[in-house]
Design goal:
This protein is of the alpha/beta class. The chain has six helices and six strands, in the order ααββααββαβαβ.
Length: 196
């Protein structure tokens, strides 16, 4: 049953005077919403997971964020401490951005934030605040490397993710605990999705 089918069914049932049927349909709709939320949510952090981007065609700016030296944290302090750090970073990110921004646990120790607008100046200020909060709230030993991809025209979500990933790689190459913005480089070919 599609979204449209459910919407039509819900509307039509408002005119049916069968309380048991209405109760059953409402229960199913609630269970469906809970299932969708569960499928799109990371169980450790409560953030969205990458599935939530499947329907997002494009956006204004994408941040790709990586916890520096996370493997070393897990190896030396244990996975419980690693989970504590991941949850702490997730909470700071979630509290630092608007509800309209997509804050996502991308996987492992990587996070992604997708913004519909292109207010880079505000985002850069927010990144500075986040890095300061990370240092003060997570024992001063946790740092983040960040890559920023900016939609300069008609970039697809895939292209923006590639830009942010490339910028993240540059931050890592240059010593970590840095923020880099992807700059157009003609030698780097981003795969474009074919238009039908």
């Amino acid at each position: 049953m599609t979204e449209v089918d459910l919407y039509i069914l819900e509307k039509e049932l408002k005119y049916v005077h069968n309380p048991k049927l209405n109760l059953l349909v409402n229960k199913l709709l609630i269970e469906r919403e809970q299932l969708i939320r569960k499928v799109n949510t990371d169980p450790l952090t409560g953030l969205y997971n990458r599935r939530v981007l499947e329907d997002v065609i494009t956006c204004g700016i994408v941040l790709m964020i990586d916890v520096d030296n996370f493997k070393n944290i897990n190896d030396t302090l244990g996975h419980a401490e690693g989970d504590y750090i991941i949850k702490g970073v997730a909470k700071i990110l979630q509290d630092s951005f608007r509800m309209t921004d997509y804050v996502i646990r991308w996987g492992g120790d990587e996070f992604l934030v997708a913004f519909m607008d292109k207010r880079l100046d505000i985002i850069i200020d927010r990144i500075k605040d986040i890095k300061e909060l990370i240092k003060t709230q997570l024992n001063g030993e946790v740092t983040l490397s960040i890559g920023i991809g900016i939609n300069r025209g008609q970039d697809t979500m895939t292209e923006l993710l590639l830009k942010a990933d490339r910028a993240l790689y540059i931050s890592k190459e240059n010593g970590k605990d840095q923020t880099s913005i992807y700059e157009e480089d003609p030698s780097i070919k981003l795969e474009r999705r074919r238009k039908h």
